[in-house]
Amino acid sequence: MSKTDLNAGLCTKDDRGYFSVTRWEIIKLIPSGNHKILDVGCGAGSTLRKLKELGKANEIVGIEINEDVARNSSDALDKLHIGDVETMDLPYPEKYFDYILFADVLEHLINPRRVLRIYRNLLRDDGYLIATIPNIKHYNVLMRLILFDEFRYSDTGILDRSHLRFFTKKEIIKMFQDEQFEVVDLIHLHVPIKPANEAAEKALSDLPSRLRYKSSLYINQCLAKSSFYAFQYLIKAKKGKVSR
């Protein structure tokens, strides 16, 4: 089975919404301006359309491997390329784009380092590459592995069955640095932290409501800074100096 077939097979009627999500966490990192933006793995193009609506992009270009999903975005984008980012050649000169987005893409690739190296050439010298990458060090993955000897793939999430590569924070930074990028911002994205078991949940529920809220808020604020509780990392990087 090819990578294209794998991705197409994983797209069902139940998860179409996944491909039409607007990535507000990425939009917030892009200022207003007449930018040329390339979204690799654009899905239905929702993030690109919103960037243009908000005056943050003048030209929006998407790449999507799943032709069925891409049909929903073709009319809204200035240009849509359907195919595998690892094998396609794009008809753009060097230093064409102001921003290149890789939202939940690099972990699906056979050779993400090579892709970063190639697409670096399409980025302006003052441009930025923005990516989101799952964190394999998340507590839920480690807990199941250590306590239950489980490493089970699923339809979505960190152990999405279409993920070919897994990353920690340290390895993400190293990968970008090795490919001549400088990481200027790395943000922890997390889901609300739940009690580890029923006993902990009952203990919290027995607290007065105001104290329970403050306790949960404090726990989330403290632990969310830890790499164990980062579900994903949001990376903003610029071109670094090329080593000679």
Main features:
single chain; 244 residues; alpha/beta; Rossmann fold; seven-stranded mixed beta sheet; 10 helices; 7 strands; 21% strand; globular
Assembly form of the protein: single chain
Q: Tell me the strand order in the biggest sheet.
A: 3-2-1-4-5-7-6
Shape summary: globular
Radius of gyration: 20 Å
| Tally of domains | 1
The sequence of SSEs as H and E is HHHEHEHEEHEHHEHHE
CATH topology: Rossmann fold
The CATH superfamily turns out to be: Vaccinia Virus protein VP39
Please indicate the percent range of residues in DSSP E strands (runs of 2 or more). 15-25%
List how many beta strands DSSP finds: 7
CATH architecture: 3-Layer(aba) Sandwich
What fraction, in percent, of the residue positions are helical?
25-40%
Q: Could you tell me the mean pLDDT?
A: 84
**Unreliable residue runs:** 8-14
Largest β-sheet summary:
7 strands, mixed
Instruction: Report the end-to-end length measured between terminal Cα atoms.
Output: 40 Å
Secondary structure class reads alpha/beta
Tally of alpha and pi helices: 10
